[in-house]
Amino acid sequence: MNKWVSILVRLSVSLAILGFVVWNAWKDATFRDNFWKLVSSPAANWYILVAAWLVSLAAVMITMVRWHLLVVALGLPFKFRDALRLGFLGYMLNLVSPGSVGGDLFKAIFIAREHPQRRAEAVATVVLDRIIGLYGLFLVASIAIFSDGLLHENMPRPIRVIVVATLVCTAIGAVGIAMLLIPGVTSGRMSERLSRLPKVGGIAVKLIEAIRIYSQKPLVLAINVVLSMIVHLFATTSVYMIATGTPGVVPTWLDHFVAVPLAMVAGAIPALPAGLGAIEIVIDYLYTNLPTGLKVTPGQGLLVAVGYRITTLLNAAVGGVIYLFNRREVDELMHEAQEPHALEHELDRDRPSDNNAECHGDRDLHGATPASN
Fold first, then answer.
1. pTM > 0.85
2. Which runs of consecutive H residues, i.e. helices, occur in the chain?
């Protein structure tokens, strides 16, 4: 019961935020005109919107390439088709999962079971993939801030705070990743202190030990950071294409590299499911408050954000199709993942014999052993 109350509260907050943004925008006559123009716009505009969706789909698939590289770099058998399947399922769960089981937790538990002798390393690929993805987001935003000269502009205080916070987080992220990959930093006393943390100590130590393996693979990490930046390049370009396909004045392509990453960061707030409401309100605010020199209609960012939301739902639909073909396996794993400390329990499970591990590790999403390539 408590779980459903929490879900209802989170969803209500998101809808309330979104409703406020829509209500505030609808009061503007220009916004209403642009909205009806979009609904009745010529086919050429819709072609742009379809192209924008394809670019966003490409961005999602690159994240799966990134994760696949992290897994195979550890010598774990992992087919790219399974990375696609798990990736789209995880993407769908991040958007529509009714409970506490997000896409990352689902992927972590699944891949841990596929590699029972190296559970920690398998889970670490999911954790590191998320860290690299988030850092790439801050990195792209920071580059855009310097390229757009925002630090030298007279801008509203909230924007300046966001800009400075982004640069600070980028610097902290760089130091944090560097420290995480230095063996002397992540061993000894630090590992001992982490192990004493309540509830998460054991799993934190195991994951850091697994991530430490990547300190010997700097090229893999560099490639993944570049791929992460390409992901956000594609995602931001997709949003800009949506903007150009909607009536009204919109910020430049470069300005979008400030607005979109910051909105995505806001969308990562755990309290709001799939960032519903947060992404919309941040994009709408930045559209009208960035020092672009353009007179952007209030609510214009909302139109673009709704277009972006539709592309995410279309991408999630791919995961929905995969779910229909793997419903039993996914439902079983989702049920187990909802148990308290599910991931920690998974890492603490006894390791099976070598023969069993080898067979289990070669299974695909359907539970069958695929033919060798």
1. no
2. 2-26, 29-39, 43-73, 80-96, 103-114, 119-147, 157-180, 189-195, 201-211, 218-244, 253-267, 278-289, 300-325, 327-337, 342-347, 354-361
